Amino acid sequence: MTLKIVDFDRVNQNRDYISFSEIHLFSSCPFKHDLTYNQGIRDDGSFYTMYGSALHEAIEQKWKYKNDLAWLRMGKIVYLVSKLNSDETNKFAKKTPSEWVQSSLRIYKDFFPWMEENFPDCELFDIEYELKEPLEGFNRHFKGYIDLILYNSKEDIYHIIDLKTSGWGWGKDQLSDTKKLYQVILYKSFFCNKENIPREKVKCHYLLLLRGPPKNKSSIVLHSMTSGNKKLLNAEQWMYETLELVKKGIKLKNPSTCSFCTCGAKKWTPKKRS
Hints:
Blueprint: E1 3-5, H1 8-11, E2 17-19, H2 20-28, H3 30-37, E3 41-43, H4 47-63, H5 76-82, H6 86-91, H7 97-118, E4 122-134, E5 141-152, E6 157-166, H8 172-175, H9 178-195, E7 202-210, E8 220-225, H10 229-248, H11 262-266
Parallel strand pairs: 2-5, 6-7
Antiparallel strand pairs: 1-3, 4-5, 5-6, 7-8
Helix pairs in contact: 2-3, 2-10, 4-5, 4-7, 5-7, 9-10
């Protein structure tokens, strides 16, 4: 994907919130954070992100709104592939638009039976649950959307689930990226505070939706996270320490993140706004 200048006022001005993705981006590379959120220079979107969004929309429409034609949302993926430029088309040419749609339909077909089998006695609490919670000592709110929340009335347990699309699944690098995995832990913290629910009554999970699962394997993979008091404290401490650095306006570049970064590849440098 390419970099472009977006409407700076729309991107950054008058925002009273900060998201986990912004906090994690600053933690990874303050330089790219500055480009994205202060100068309005950012990626024009990831195909994989858009693919995941189309799939999430279909799941939400089917489960929350009982829309039996929700699977038609996957047709959006054909449009997305057709809009890629020539270089990007070559990158994704390993699959035709039809094959991309078929992979999403397989996930969609597998999803609901898998949920019934692995989360029995659970009912839907909410999908795309919105968080916009105050941050102590910071002049913004924490904003995010929890993909899926289930409630088991027999056990009196809530399950917070973050859906992630993936190719073959997560390897050691993803599973050891502690800061990135803090996302669902922090969601739990804010959810419990908002709903006044004891933390011990909430469990956290990442649910991987695999575009290309191994042969004869399910396209759904669950990674449950420990989220006890120590893990919650560590996640909250990391978040507030990062927020303090955001407030200071640090713009240092982290060269170790440049290999797969559009900003690094294009050698963008900070520019003063007139």
